[in-house]
Amino acid sequence: MGFRTALSKGLLNMSEVKQELKAQVELFHELTGHLPPHMDGHQHIHVLPEVRHVFAEVLEEYGITYTRVPVEPGLHNCDWIPPSLMDFYLGVEEDSFNTVDVFRRHGIRWPDIYIGLSTMGKNMSVSNIWSAIDTAIVEFLSKAPSPAHPTPQSRTVTIELMVHPGYPSVPPVGGCGEGPDDFSQSWERLHELQTLIKPELQSHYKTRNVQLCSFKDL
Questions:
Q1: What task does this protein carry out (predicted)?
Q2: Which H or E run includes 32?
Q3: How confident is the model at residue 184 (pLDDT cuts 50, 70, 90)?
Q4: Is the dihedral of CA 93, 55, 30, 217 positive or negative?
Q5: Residue 209 lies in a domain
Q6: Does residue 80 fall inside a structural domain?
Q7: Of all helices (H) and strands (E), which one includes residue 115?
């Protein structure tokens, strides 16, 4: 949250933000031998005012074609999300709407649907994942232009499911910047991992003709 506070006070130099972004891309390339097919910001900082512009410039410069636009269909109806967290999510949503045109101008793409805020941590379950997917697909298809002669399964819909599978961090190891935060240290990351590998969920994917893939496969 310190990044958002500094930005709101005008304490960030966008040339330094751009320099940092490029340094991270270069380090990724050095470590892996290739550029990332996708890039976004921790805590969605890539859609913040000012940041969104330099972020888009860096992605275009390196030819990184995919990012994340964290607007989740049905989010407003998720009454299990605490009000303070919902306020943060709605702020991210507003920033995302204001970022879309910037990303488009730079030729950056993102999946048709984003899910993950309503299914994060303790709120993740097989039923919640599928409820979020069903809600999102219905909303997406209601807005999508219909082909002149629609045929069953003629439209491939891409969905990003944001997840945080892992194991609880033990300070001072883990986390970002100043060490692990409360979420990194909690049981919730392991809960996500255990949910995502459940045979029941894998069976749902197969039954519903869902193919798991990476951004590089899009």
A1: Probably catalyzes the deacetylation of acetylated carbohydrates an important step in the degradation of oligosaccharides.
A2: helix 14-32
A3: confident
A4: positive
A5: no
A6: yes
A7: strand 113-115
- Tokens encoding 161: 């499911």
Question: Where are the extended beta strands (E) located within 148-217?
Answer: 159-161
For residue 161, list its beta bridge partners: 115
**CB-CB contact of 161 with 205 (8 Å):** no
Based on the structure, what is the number of domains in the chain?
1
Domain assignment of residue 94, given as a range: 2-111
Model-level pTM?
Answer: 0.88
Reference 115, options 99, 139, 83; nearest CA is 139
Length of the chain: 218
Domain assignment present for residue 116? The answer is no
**3-state class (DSSP) for residue 133:** helix
Instruction: Enter the tokens of residue 125.
Output: 């379950």
